[in-house]
Specification:
It is a single chain. The protein is of the alpha/beta class. The chain folds into two domains: 152 residues; 204 residues, 2-Layer Sandwich (Alpha-Beta Plaits). It is 63% helix and 11% strand. Strand 2 and strand 3 form a beta hairpin. Helix 2 packs antiparallel against helix 3. The longest helix is centred in the middle third of the chain and has 40 residues. The protein is elongated, with a radius of gyration of 32 Å. The protein starts with a helix and ends with a helix.
């Protein structure tokens, strides 16, 4: 496309009469589109759409200005490149739109430049095939890569021994709970659990026995966890449950249910430290503002040590001052009840059986009235 005016100057007979002026206009347009893309680098789908459409129209116009039908069809075949580029990363619906635009444009131009029906049908079929086949190959490869990446992401978020979330998975799953807690004005609770004398078990009985203890404790913790709670293996012999309790008494009762269940169903006991804290929206001015989860974990860790100091197989839960929470900049309306991210997070939690303490209270009242 770009060197086409040079070829036209070297051999003017390849162009239609008086086509040099329009060709230079088309060439200037295509060149500006190319330079625009080069200058801006990676374009968003919204910015790339008019650029790609302009490229298709520029190729079609150039083919119409060429007198030789063979050369015109060769230039016209370049329309296949653009839908293939679109298919690499743009939305699938946008890709299909550009496939349709390219096929319609190539067909119309092919009809206009054809000298007879048979060559027109052959050339049009070849160009349509050149458009469709690479696009669907790219889409199939892209789908396979996306599945691999999604599977890898899931694996990276799960502890391979217990099947619980790991720290990476915890951070990805806590955001919806923080958004829901802030929007519904509910406090948050963190329970950090540490298996008592786990090092002695490993030293005396070996790591295989230690792994069995971890599996037994993890299974019990996961079974006791309420719907909507986030459960993870926090590291080593530590487990963490992130939840939305109604009151500190509710959190203490929740913590004690874990302690009692592990003591009853596992060969070990656990010490549990808990923190109960409201959330406040931060203005982002303080370094502490982005560390809501980190602050809660630090307090919970101190509470675990206190539970162990009290004799192990104990719980120690304390309230905390409101913790400042700053959501990500790209989710600036995450915590608003009408926002799309918040509605998605609440839909996910509702699907998993989660109810806020207020919703649980309404359910209990309604059940009492019905009885």
């Amino acid at each position: 496309m770009l060197p086409l005016p040079v070829f036209a100057l070297l051999d003017p007979t390849m162009m239609r009469p008086d086509a040099m002026g329009p060709l230079m206009i088309v060439w200037a347009f295509v060149t500006s589109v190319f330079l625009f893309t080069l200058w801006h680098g990676r374009l968003s789908a919204q910015k790339f759409a008019p650029v790609a459409a302009g490229g298709i129209l520029g190729i079609a116009a150039s083919a119409l200005l060429i007198a030789d039908s063979g050369a015109a069809y060769a230039v016209l075949s370049l329309v296949a490149v653009i839908p293939t580029i679109v298919a690499v990363s743009s939305p699938v619906r946008m890709t299909y739109g550009f496939v349709l635009l390219s096929v319609v444009t190539a067909t119309l131009v092919s009809v206009l430049i054809a000298s007879s029906i048979a060559p027109m049908l052959v050339a049009t079929g070849a160009i349509i095939g050149a458009i469709i086949v690479p696009v669907f190959l790219v889409l199939a490869l892209r789908h396979s890569l996306e599945e691999i990446l999604e599977r890898q992401t899931r694996l990276n978020s799960v502890d391979p021994l217990t099947g619980l979330l790991n720290r990476r998975g915890l951070h990805s799953r806590v955001s919806p709970l923080l958004a829901a807690a802030h929007a519904s004005d509910e406090p948050v609770g963190v329970l950090l659990m540490d298996i008592d004398r786990f090092k002695e078990i490993n030293d005396c009985h070996g790591h295989l026995v230690g792994d069995g203890v971890l599996l037994s404790a993890a299974a019990t913790i996961q079974r006791i966890a309420r719907p909507g709670s986030v459960v993870c293996r926090f590291g080593g012999e530590e487990f963490l449950v992130f939840c939305l309790p109604g009151t500190i008494a509710d959190l203490e009762e929740y913590a004690d249910s874990f302690r009692a269940a592990v003591a009853e169903n596992s060969p070990v006991t656990i010490s549990i430290g808990g923190v109960f804290s409201p959330l406040v929206m931060s203005d982002g001015q303080d370094e502490r503002d982005s560390g809501a989860l980190r602050e809660l974990l630090e307090i919970a860790d101190r509470c675990v040590y206190q539970a162990k100091a009290n004799g192990r197989n104990q719980i120690f839960v304390e309230p905390s001052a409101p913790v400042a929470w700053t959501h990500d900049a790209h989710d600036q309306d995450l915590g608003h009840p009408n926002s799309h991210p918040y509605r998605l997070s609440m839909a996910f939690l509702s699907f998993s059986g989660f109810q806020t303490p207020r919703q649980r209270e309404v359910t209990r009242v309604n059940a009492g009235d019905a009885a």
